[in-house]
Specification:
24% strand, alpha+beta, five-stranded mixed sheet, 4 helices
Amino acid sequence: MQYTSDQMLALWRQQLGLCTSRTDAAVAEWEGVDTDTTLRQHMRSWYLRQLDTAPPALLPVSEISRQCTLSAAGSSHHLILLPSDCRRVLSVRLQGWQRSVHPERYDTPDGDKLLRRLASPFARPGTACPTAVTMADGSIAVAPVDIPVVESLRAIVDPGPDTYILCPSLLEEIRRDKP
């Protein structure tokens, strides 16, 4: 579902028990904490964390291949430069590859092995078993690149600070992540 910032704030207030349903009382505020501003900050941080870590089935997945730039990074591989709103890449496929692959992070054992494989003239990947590694700067090192075209790149992107798109089941996480 898609929520505006105000709708999400109302859901947060409800989940945290900050909504009042009494109509026979009045409250006057003289001085205090701006609860809504504080909640909006926590709400935004929480949502970005969900985009980064929640199961992809609970979030919107976008095809962003047309928003990416592919540039040569040497003789063994190319780099895919991602748009700034991309939070997490789920799969990448270049034209000519026989399958899509999930990029490994450069700082993991598997990512390190793949980077070493790119550097070796004897172990470079082929179209049946392509390689994609997310680098420290957020770009993705890919090989082989016979046809320099990103055919598909499925990712989770941030829709901006005023839009929240997620499966309603994730709202249960709000109580667990109390501010």
